[in-house]
């Protein structure tokens, strides 16, 4: 079992602590949180060992799970890597692209494994549909959330939209060509609503909308490709695949047939991939344990986390 320690015991940090404590792949050693009152409360309530400093925790573990505010990701990761510890780091990887590049380079030099917490890669609805996504040419994402003060220290692009950026980069096998975007601040010092259009060299276009002051929650992405449409509802954990094939000569009574102006007939087929319920956060943490134990590339590597941040920064620079 890998010895793990958590930096940060806020809302998400407590979830990580609980799951690491449950996992058969980790031994939870303890945690550190600079806010003494909260840290002591968590330690007393759950019985986790509270370390007195970041340094002491890093020295006691094999893996450092960084669940601190984004602004401190770089310093925490740098300390851990310099001491030869593998890192799991919440998204976004760091606050700036320069910091991300530095972390990626340092980890490579020290032969350290690192994974970024883009948890939607482990969403069961996406897992069920991703093998159906082949060469999407148009992608539309809507990620809307009701207002929550957590996360407003960064723009909505880094808070919410970056999830969809990572998903898109994982399925579009082409370089980003152009980015156009607009954003507006409503209640925060940084944009709360943003829309972006990402154009890829292969002709694919992705349109992303993110809001953290919506009246309802929505996390839905639609992928359009030749002869197929794939819908992934990350919130409701549902997937749908709609395929179009040449219509048979004698279609069934209830078959859906479309005919164009040239007389070509196509039949529409509906498929709902089996979605297997899971705990996405536990799965991402345990997949990282597997990567460390087997010396393989993590599902969401530091390089991929850096590329997601790079595109996010391109979007922010448009504002």
From TrEMBL:
GO terms for molecular function: nucleotide binding. SUPFAM superfamilies: Glyceraldehyde-3-phosphate dehydrogenase-like, C-terminal domain (SSF55347), NAD(P)-binding Rossmann-fold domains (SSF51735). Coiled coil: none annotated. Residues 3-118 form the Gfo/Idh/MocA-like oxidoreductase N-terminal domain. Residues 156-217 form the GFO/IDH/MocA-like oxidoreductase domain. This is Oxidoreductase. It comes from Tenacibaculum todarodis. The lineage of its organism: Bacteria, Pseudomonadati, Bacteroidota, Flavobacteriia, Flavobacteriales.
